[in-house]
Amino acid sequence: MTINIQDVEHVARLARLDLNEEEKEQFTAQLDAILKYAEKLNELDTDNVEPTTHVLHVSNVMREDKVHESLPIEKVLRNAPDDEDGQFKVPAVLE
User: Fold this and answer.
1) Could you count the other beta carbons within 10 Å of the beta carbon of residue 27?
2) Are 86 and 77 in contact (CB under 8 A)?
3) Cβ-based neighbours of 1, under 8 Å, separated by 6 or more
4) How far apart are CA 59 and CA 87, in angstroms?
5) Where are the domains of the chain?
6) Is 5-43 CATH 1.10.8?
7) Helices 21-39, 5-14: crossing angle, 10 deg rounding
8) C-alpha dist (Å) from residue 19 to 4, 12, 33
9) What mean pLDDT is predicted for residues 41-46?
10) 42 pLDDT band (50/70/90 cuts)?
11) How far does the signal peptide extend, from start to end residue (predicted)?
């Protein structure tokens, strides 16, 4: 597959980019080179390669969920810039 200037103009229009003629030619050459390089992957024999989502084995790294005693509300609200009725008071975001 090769990239032509019409392809670059189409993508630029979709991305709302205003490209001059020099940029169109530059991006045409660059994108064409990228696609030609990617086509080399088709030459690889991948018949006996297992499909993977990661190169390395990834396991769940989250800690076990355990119930802990909470901090007292007085201690938590000590760092609050403003509080009301035992809750953080923040500026209204709706009018």
Assistant:
1) 19
2) yes
3) 35, 39
4) 38
5) 5-43
6) no
7) 100
8) 14, 7, 19
9) 88
10) confident
11) none
How many residues are present in the chain? Answer: 95
Per the structure block, which two tokens stand in for 19? 């490209």
Note the Cα 81 to chain centre separation in Å.
34
The more confident residue out of 43 and 59 is 43
The string of DSSP letters for 19-85 reads: --HHHHHHHHHHHHHHHHHHHGGGGS--TTPPP-S-SS-----PPP----PPPPHHHHHTT-S-EET
pLDDT band at 52 (very low <50, low <70, confident <90, very high): confident
pTM of the predicted protein model: 0.48
The pair of structure tokens assigned to 57 is 């084995």
- Which residues lie below 8 Å from residue 82, measured CB to CB, with a gap of 6+? 88, 89, 90
